[in-house]
# Entry
Amino acid sequence: MEFLTEVQQDDLKFFYSKFDELIANQLYKHKYALVHNKAIEGFFDSFENALTDAVSKYQPGEYVIQQIISETETSGFLYSAYAPT
# Structure
């Protein structure tokens, strides 16, 4: 995580501390969470919407955006994206 600021590292740790709770809630599953100062500031349907909101409020390096998606769903997506045809 060396490419992240200390603030972003703390926000990412906060996100992962809440991950099980978030993924269990169907309202948040597959959404993008905007995290700032160890708080979730919003949930968005797309990364673009989360980023638009973030850059309108915060300076670069002051937030993280993470999708609420399970590891098995991510693995399945990556397999489909790279599977030979």
User: Anything to note?
Assistant: The radius of gyration is 14 Å. The chain has one domain: 6-82. The chain has three helices and three strands.
